[in-house]
Design a protein that fits this description.
Elements lengths: L2 H10 L2 H13 L8 H8 L3 H13 L3 E3 L5 E3 L1 H14 L5 E8 L3 E7 L5 E7 L3 H6 L2 H31 L7 E5 L2 E5 L3 E3 L9 H17 L2 E2 L8 E4 L4 E3 L6 E2 L6 H20 L5 H8 L6
Antiparallel strand pairs: 1-2, 3-4, 4-5, 5-7, 6-7, 8-10, 9-12, 10-11
Bound molecules: adenosine-5'-triphosphate and magnesium ion.
Length: about 290
């Protein structure tokens, strides 16, 4: 769905449509598909009103009706509900262009009441499978994927909060609604897009300093690479994409994951900037047994 259509649906969503969407979210955990009667009970609405709301939601492709006459919530519906809730809470006042499309999320631009730009990350767990398997089979799992997306947004929100409080350069997370995470917008490029850096050694050491700081509060990104580091217009680096971060003290593969994160970054700097930095030295530095 285009961002323009999405913005229109968010604005035009009726009160009863919101109630039905909320009922879907409440019932998803226990139902692969949901029928009209169940929705009427949960939404505390007359069955005729539920039917009317379902027709409207179906026309806008915010839900999907299967052959068995059951209904499924789909990502577009969860997006519209979450964005509507953020608008009602006064967190965002309008939605803009798509900033980034990752494997597990779409990141879109939004504006708040003061005119500041924000980034809204809408999780899309299972999207890869959506494309590769038949629609019929996909519907069987759609609710569990939506729930996994809600959980990922929650995890990343909490990690970003902890990291920010510890002084790690991550976008400030400002709000959470369902699978939508609102954060500060960073104007910059992903490291992978930077063909030229004024001082690559400084940038690499800055990244290592941040990984070390995260490690000091017990967090390992576990998805660190040149794709998840932003380099902004002022030459500052930002480490993004933390939903899968792991506990450095309790995760059984913590050390291997940290090593992989560091390897990815060191490999990139070596290839692109001819800058060689010893992996064991980086590991020792991050785990605090050595000064950089
Ligand atoms: N706060 C932000 N400010 C500006 N751009 C951002 C911000 N957060 C994310 N982006 C952009 O959106 C893209 C996708 O974000 P992110 O890496 O968090 O999602 P993802 O789907 O989990 O990615 P991946 O494909 O690495 O799994 C990023 O590569 C980046 O270009
Ligand atoms: Mg990413």
């Amino acid at each position: 769905m285009s961002m323009l259509d999405m913005a229109r649906h968010v604005k035009e969503l009726g009160y009863e449509e919101v109630r039905v969407l909320k009922a879907f979210v409440m019932m998803m955990r226990d139902h692969e598909s949901i029928d009209e009667e169940q929705l009427a009970v949960r939404a505390k609405m007359h069955i005729d009103r539920v039917r009317y709301a379902l027709t409207k939601l179906n026309e806008k492709n915010l839900i999907y009706r299967s052959y068995s006459r059951g209904y499924h919530l789909v990502y577009a519906g969860l997006d519209v509900l979450a964005l509507r809730e953020l608008a009602d809470r006064g967190v965002i006042s309008s939605i803009g262009r798509t900033i980034g499309i990752g494997k597990e999320a779409d990141v879109v631009e939004a504006i708040d009441d003061h005119g500041s730009v924000l980034a809204v990350k809408l999780f899309r767990i299972g999207r890869v499978s959506f494309r590769s398997i038949a629609r019929k089979r996909m519907l069987k799992d759609v609710h569990s994927w939506l729930l996994a997306s809600i959980e990922s947004a929650r995890m990343e929100f909490h990690s970003l909060r902890r990291l920010k409080a510890a002084g790690v350069n991550v976008p400030r997370a400002t709000a959470l609604a369902r699978h939508a995470l609102v954060m500060e917008y960073v104007e910059g490029l992903r490291l992978v897009e930077c063909t030229n850096l004024d001082d690559p050694k400084y940038v690499l050491e800055d990244i290592l300093r941040n990984i070390r700081l995260a490690y000091s509060i017990g967090l390992i990104s576990a998805d660190l690479s040149e794709y998840n580091v932003l380099y902004d217009v002022n030459g500052k680096i930002w480490i993004i994409d933390w939903p899968q971060s792991v506990d450095a003290r309790t995760h059984p593969n913590a050390r291997a994951l940290l090593e992989r994160d560091l390897k990815n970054i060191l490999r990139f700097f070596s290839k692109r900037f001819d800058l060689d930095y010893d992996l064991s030295k980086a590991m020792a530095y991050v785990t605090m047994s050595e000064e950089c």
